[in-house]
Amino acid sequence: MRELVVGAAQLGPIARDEPRESAVGRMIALLEDAAARGCRLVVFPELALTTFFPRWYTEDQAEIDAWFETDMPNAATRPLFERAKSLGVGFYLGYAELTIEDGRTRHYNTAILVNAGGRIIKRYRKVHLPGHAENEPWRAFQHLEKRYFEPGESFFEPVNAFGGEIALAICNDRRWPEIYREAALRGAEMVLLGYNTPVHYPPAPEHDHLQGFHNHLVMQAGAYQNGMWVVGVAKAGREEGCDLIGESCIIAPTGEIVALCSTLGDELITAPCDFDRCAEIRSNVFNFALHRRPQLYPLLSADDPSSLQG
Ligand code: ING
């Protein structure tokens, strides 16, 4: 048995004018509760330091950049790193990353995995950026991730940590089945992800009532079809007038939700996650070596599937 007690630390709304220090303080409180409940790893949401700023359009780059972190840890987040280290707990943190690469400023929707010693052992930049890049004032609120962020280019490679193989993802990534399979084929036993998901989806409001269903559907399918633990953690509640779903959860390799948030605020749920349980699925129903027929799925990762159609 390779058991890891995991905490999913859901956050309620973060106000537009709420200082990072305030969000960090809320996360430290959840972290301390998690440590008291035996957790060694805590998962926080996507963009957990600020309000979900892609809901507003601006052309003022300085205003946009103010939402980003240029260093990690930094003055605002160092208390979180230090408290986690003193408690011997690792964590996943989502935030907006501004960095200079090859002399060019880059903006990423990023998540990091920090070990119990306070060291960043994995950094992941969101691959699937939803929403749009241009001003679309017809929407009750916008979703400008394609404007404010560049997509990440990393594969869903796990890192060996906390006794298992752990891969990172962020929000919209969870809707794409490929990420779970790619991670599983690379040996992942657990996927951690944070999300900010509005109830209202302007392009298809007739689906608003399905947001909670779709949220669990994609993560439970990903977990079961790949024999992996999946931890999904929301920034939830009415944030600057925009209702965000909650229902953060911890999902077993069987696809069962073993822990579920029941509020739209700051809430910790925990579950003992035995990495060895992945074998119940990966050695049987989804034994890839025995049953999978990749030569018959050539279109799955083709750039232009139509060019391959026989
Ligand atoms: N948010 C949403 C998500 O994928 C979205 C965007 C909502 C896409 C509903 C499609 C339907 O959960 C982020 N931040 O990706």
Description:
A hairpin with a 2-residue loop joins strand 6 and strand 7 (164-170). The protein is an alpha/beta fold. The chain has one domain (3-308): Nitrilase/N-carbamoyl-D-aminoacid amidohydrolase, CATH 3.60.110. A six-stranded mixed β-sheet has the order 5-4-3-2-1-14. 41% of the residues are buried. 24% of the residues lie in helices and 27% in strands. The mean pLDDT is 98. The chain is built from nine helices and 14 strands. D-[(amino)carbonyl]phenylalanine binds next to loops.
User: Based on DSSP secondary structure assignment, what is the total number of beta strands?
Assistant: 14
CATH-defined fold name: Nitrilase/N-carbamoyl-D-aminoacid amidohydrolase
Tally the structural domains. Answer: 1
Structural class: alpha/beta
By CATH, the architecture is named 4-Layer Sandwich
How does the major sheet shape up? 6 strands, mixed
Question: Bound small molecules, which ones?
Answer: D-[(amino)carbonyl]phenylalanine
Over all CA atoms, what is the radius of gyration? Answer: 19 Å
Order of helices and strands: EHEHHEEEHEEHEHEEEEEEHHH
Proportion of residues in extended strands: 25-35%
State the low-pLDDT regions, or none: none
